[in-house]
Specification:
25% of the residues are buried. Helix 3 crosses helix 5. The mean pLDDT is 94. This protein starts with a strand and ends in a 9-residue tail after the last helix. It is of the alpha/beta class and 227 residues long. The chain has 2 domains: 151 residues, 3-Layer(aba) Sandwich (Alpha/beta knot), CATH 3.40.1280.10; 55 residues, Trp Operon Repressor, Chain A, CATH 1.10.1270. It is built from 6 helices and 9 strands, in the order βαβββαβαβαβαββα.
Length: 227
Amino acid sequence: MQIDIITVVPDLLKSPFEHSIMKRAGDRGLLNVNVVNLRPYGLGIHHQVDDYQYGGGAGMVMMCEPLDACISELKSNTKYDEIIYLTPDGLTFNQKTANRLSCLSSIMIICGHYKGIDQRIRDLHVTTEISVGDFVLSGGELAAAVITDAIGRLIPGVLNDETSALTDSFQDDLLAPPVYTRPADFKGLKVPDVLLSGHDRRIDEWRYEAALRITEQKRPDLLRTDK
């Protein structure tokens, strides 16, 4: 899978993809994350990428020309399944969206900055707009790292145990059940007997019931039938 991320601050995206599962995905040739610096596409000797907004108001806006030149060059080399712009007014990112995107071959992610990007870039190029939550970040880079991680770990072969991702929270609209490891007794708190029984069916039943109970307590909205 190919993920190209356009940003004006590429250094923000170095560390997330150089460690742990994302590094493993790259080393195995399963995920190629290409961070594209927008600055060389900027205008004039200072490579300007932002300007004041029409109509006045605080904050700068990322300009059409640099973004269009960068996006067009990338599109000339790659046929993208989705071109994603990260914005607070996009659809809220969730596990279902991560699952869908993980099945694609190539994605472009545009990181906004300042007050965002000129609307005409959204009109011309963007196919999907995504938000990571009802809050505002300084730029889209951290959101891009979150989305890339959520997608990348779902690609077959990335995780050592491919069933691991299928049992994560939200995969079946339930939160994950409690998990335990050694020792079996810690400060008087014991691992539930069923998990030590070796009885797969009973363990599965316990985990489902525990997941349902936790979801009812912490996220009852996930169980609503009208969502």
